[in-house]
Every structure is written in structure tokens, then in C-alpha cells.
Amino acid sequence: MDDETADAVALAGEQFPDAVDGGRVVFGFDGYVDRVREVVADRHDPEHYDRLDTLAAFGDRVNRSVEADSSLSFEWLQRGTRTGGHTSHLSRVFGTWGFDPVMIGMYGRPELDVFAEEFAEYERHTLGEPGYTDAVEFDDGKLMIMELGDTKELDWERLLETVDRETLADRLDGAALLGTGYWAETPDLPDVLDGLRDLWDELDDPPETVLVDPGDVRKLDRDRLRAGRDALGRLDDVARVVVSANRAETKLLAELFGDDVPEDADAATDAEAVADAVDAELVVSHGVDRSVVVGPSGTTGVAVPKVDEPELTTSSGDHFNAGLALALVEGMDPSAAVVVGNAVAGEFVRTGESPTFDAVRSFVERYGEKF
């Protein structure tokens, strides 16, 4: 653990609250049903098999098949079904911490039981059909095969067809946070952000913080990317916009928006390039080794304590965002907020469960011992 990390961890320990008052938080605008799977490497009999445990080994098999000009098949097993996406994961975590989530997303028309049953205690507004994700867990990463659902059709007009302007304004007014994800799966998110920017002027007490998760923006053309960058800047005029992306997404944004960023640039350089190009107050890049935040006070990197045998990695990025957002809502400094993001994600991948507030506190207090 380097000195920069140690300083951030010490600050997080000082600033982490004893308790939270809760309050309303709003999340939009996606919704997924995740099928958690694993791939069989070798089957010995109907009951016994070896799991293909690394993404690298999966890639090796694909490459060997390509080189041999041969077809390839895998056996995979479904190990669970759960709700997924930005709205589900962050609502689940914030609900665990005593907040009152308002969920605006793709939960089915009529709403699917899997959403209605899990989130029965939360206010929900369904905008259309959810996407589906087959998430294959490996020890060194994950492979996600996605069907987007209706998020790809969402724009400001369609949003207001389901959640009228008055209702949306009422739920945002007084909320502590607005979280949105994922830009890559919502091509017209810039139109939604511009609609929100106009709505902000009508609110007495709008959310101070807006968290935006871009996702894998390789799916978007350059016109949409430029439109999104501009829309983020306009919204940042009235709120603290926080763009949070994983390491690969940050590098892609740096290549798209940055000016001659080297291919081998480190996380800090890539995040700084994104921050220079996007008018957001904070740009955060989270990774398995290090997370970085760039803001008005400069750049801070925080090392991530690894876990050799993760219980679950799918949605670890969403859990990082939940911790980051919690800390920012509670008034913590950005560098300390990154520590909390790492702690929430770290506890999640070790247990496979969304951590309680006390578990997050314990992880922050013992952060150095995790290395």
C-alpha cells in the first residue's frame, strides 16, 4: 500500500460517518435479468465436471479453434437468476443502507415478478421491457452476453410518456442523488440529460450529485459521443456530475476524447485525459488494481486490495459506484470516497452479497490489512 493510498485511507477513516440518515435516491433508466453462468472445462460423468476457471483459458480455446478453422462448442450451466443493471444493483445496496430508492427503468410491461418481488418495498416506474444478460464468471474476469431490451429506444419524450413531468420533478426534488446508467445501452441518454437539465430549474431542492456510468461506449457513434459529452457539461452547470467508468471504459473514453493519449498510458493519465475533455466535476476510473479520481483538487490514486478467489465479480463495478456515491452524498472528500467505493466492491466480491453499512465501515477501518 503506497503513501497516496495510505493518506486516502486515513482520510476515509476520519470522514466515514457513524450512521446515515437515509433519504430518497433516484436511479434510472435500465433494467436487466442476469443469468449467472459458469463454463464446463471437462465433464467426467453426469454429476461431476471441472469448471473452466479463467477467461484466459476460455480465450485460448477460442483462438485454437480459429487457428484450426474449426467450429467450437461450450457447455455452460446456469447458477442463478437475479435482477441486474444500474438501477437494480444500486437500489439494492442503498436500500440495504436505509435509503429510500426510487427506481425508474425497464422492468417489463406488465412488470415482471422478479422485479416486483425483490423491490416490493421501493417505488418503481417501469418504462418498458428489460434486457437479459448471460454473465459467465471466471476467476480473472467475466464474459457478459447481453440483449439490451428497450433501453436502446429511450429518450426524453418516451420517459415522460411513462413518468409524467410533474411526477419526475416531485421524485427528484429533495433527493440526495440521481444515478444513471448505462450510456452505452441508452444511445439517446444525451437527450434525457438535456431534459433533466431543463427540469432542474423547476426544482426547489434538486439532487446535488448526479452519477453517470458510461458503460462500454464503443457501441456509440462519434456524433452520439460528442452529444453526450456536451450534455454532461450542461448538466454539470447545475449539479455535481460524477462520471465513473471501469479501467477499460476509461481508456476507451481517453482514446476517443483525449489528445494523443499513449496506448500504454496508466489509469491516472487516461482519467486526466477524460477529465480534460468532459465538463464533469469528477472523473473516476475504477479497476482491479487501482482506482483514480480526478477533480478540482487534482488526481488521487488508491490501490485496491486483491482477493485471490472472488465469490462473485459481476456487478462489482456497480457496487463500487454505490460506495462512491454514498461517500459523496455524505460529504466525504473525493479521495476518501474512492476508498469507500473500493471497500464496497471489495466486500461484495469476497462474499457475493451487498454489504451492510457496518461491513463497509469494517472494511474501511481494516483496509490496510487487506493487502
SSE layout:
Blueprint: H1 3-15, E1 23-28, E2 32-43, E3 49-51, H2 55-67, E4 76-84, H3 86-96, E5 99-105, H4 113-118, E6 123-126, E7 131-138, E8 141-147, H5 156-162, H6 165-172, E9 177-181, H7 189-200, E10 209-213, H8 222-236, E11 240-246, H9 247-257, H10 267-277, E12 282-286, E13 290-295, E14 298-303, H11 316-329, H12 334-351, H13 357-365
Parallel strand pairs: 1-5, 1-9, 2-7, 5-6, 9-10, 10-11, 11-12
Antiparallel strand pairs: 2-3, 2-4, 7-8, 12-13, 13-14
Structure characteristics:
UDP-N-acetylmuramoyl-L-alanine:D-glutamate ligase, 5-stranded mixed beta sheet, 9-stranded mixed beta sheet, 371 residues, 14 strands, globular, alpha/beta, 40% helix
Question: Could you describe the 3D structure shown?
Answer:
This protein has 371 residues and is an alpha/beta fold. It has 13 helices and 14 strands. Strands 6-5-1-9-10-11-12-13-14 form a nine-stranded mixed β-sheet, with helices on both faces. Strand 10, helix 8 and strand 11 form a beta-alpha-beta unit. Helix 3 crosses helix 11, helix 9 crosses helix 10 and helix 11 runs antiparallel to helix 12.
